């Protein structure tokens, strides 16, 4: 508070009554002759007293000896004294009129010390006593916050800070000297970041994670290498740890709610938690080491079942990949914990704590997935698609430009060679020749027709593609090549990158001696997994545009001269091709048959037909209406025995799918509920005793889908279809002159056809 100057409270006019509702408040008045503004508490109805009374009180030993004279009336509280004024008994200290003279110049203060200033507020009012006390007590209270007291307090605080700094410096030096010993360094490391991370782990999460880790190393559909095995084990461990930690938190909430009055109820098994964490961590470490051998043994058994060399061995890379797969999610979870807690607190205003916790986690998880998916789609759409577009536009010398007019991209074609893309150039630049077909069949053959329309124009990607315009261009190519005069017209919906499976097309060309026309419409340059993440509706729209345009032109032909119209698709192409039909009856009424291989689990038509299967048939090999129109080829190479169910009607539809094909088995519902095939007897290419675990099995099937068409997968297993195409096309198109010996020779020939 400023202590240079005097305060005189303004007096109420004579006869004016001050109301009782007025509260004490700080008032101030600047005095003449140099007096400074002083803060003062002015109370209501303060009775006046003569100046002599005030001077007698000022002379009290408890008051300061330097009082000033004034002729004004004062209230009963008295006024604060100024240590910078002359004593009251010096008559020369006052000027005429009894007013105080100007304050003396203040002494120069030391640098760094701010003068104490009075402020209006609770602190200043709290240091003054209530109304009714004697002035000497008031003055004694004010004296406690005088300038001398403030300066003394500042000096004491500075001395105390200096002593503490010296003490802290000495303590730091002692700790630094002690830290150089190996024992001290080990103890410091034990309580460092790794120690804090270890103490933050959930014992229940580690225990459940160990069981999940063991389950994640078991074989499922396809053999996995060390990296894929480590990813499966690490993700399974992350899922198990999350479930165990969440269960522990729920128990903690329930126990705290039941014993809210008990302060000790802070955590379940709080006393035994360090021991439980150590035991759970040891069990996890032992499980990781043991499963190196048990997991490799399971992979060797699956390799022998597929006819592959049993080469799987314990690989330490599995542990490294699994550690990365668990550590990265845990670190990410720690970073977003604050946001989750904030969301829980917000929901806790209206929901019970356990419900708010679960709801907060669910909302944050869903929101994170949506944001990550949007960011992932942006990255894929902007960068990945651009790279694949460049590769698609690059003209390779592996396939030469065809010269036959029956091929797109030829000099006679409406479609330029550069506009077909990499997969289109591969499709029209390959295939069996007339001589190869005649050699195998022993009969005269003709040049097969292959038509392809790509999504690139002059080497540049057209995004989004105009599918209707592209389908019209494809019909124009069919008109140019006189494809309507052939026996069979196959409409191919390619995979995401525009790839057409070579053995599938070559099989139907061999069976009909080249009297076929195959038309393919590209819709993307991305691999199927990228297109699945970006836009799943695009292949469906391409399949509809392709079939609708060709079917409209096909209906204009005389009924007795129409070719057999057969849609075909593999993988994501099978999904897009089936999207042109709303039901099986729609297929039978508008198409002459269909061959679909490796249909994804999320394909609506095949899912509906599988659900309608006859009683007693399994999901991996369903039988629909006794095989009247639809049959499933599920064997691994060799004869498919499609005629085993007896005679069939026409048109005919064949689904080619292996029991070990992860594409035909995985979809999101596998994470939380088992499909029928997991409870039924397994297929001939899957190991017995396949068990379903929540979330874990879904993760394993997802990895099986990713590796089901890799280079190490043999023909006739997984997503690699080859010889089964021969039986499928023969049963659907019904060519003449093919016995079992010729069919076996064709299967052997297709094994050498590049995909």
From TrEMBL:
Residues 1-124 are annotated as: Disordered. Signal peptide: none annotated. Residues 449-744 form the Alpha/beta-hydrolase catalytic domain. Residues 26-39, 103-122 have a biased composition (Basic residues). InterPro entries: Alpha/beta-hydrolase_catalytic (IPR027787), Alpha/beta-hydrolase_N_dom (IPR027788). Residues 219-432 form the Alpha/beta-hydrolase N-terminal domain. Pfam families: Abhydrolase_9, Abhydrolase_9_N. Residues 47-64, 73-93 have a biased composition (Basic and acidic residues). This is Alpha/beta-hydrolase catalytic domain-containing protein. It comes from Miniimonas arenae.
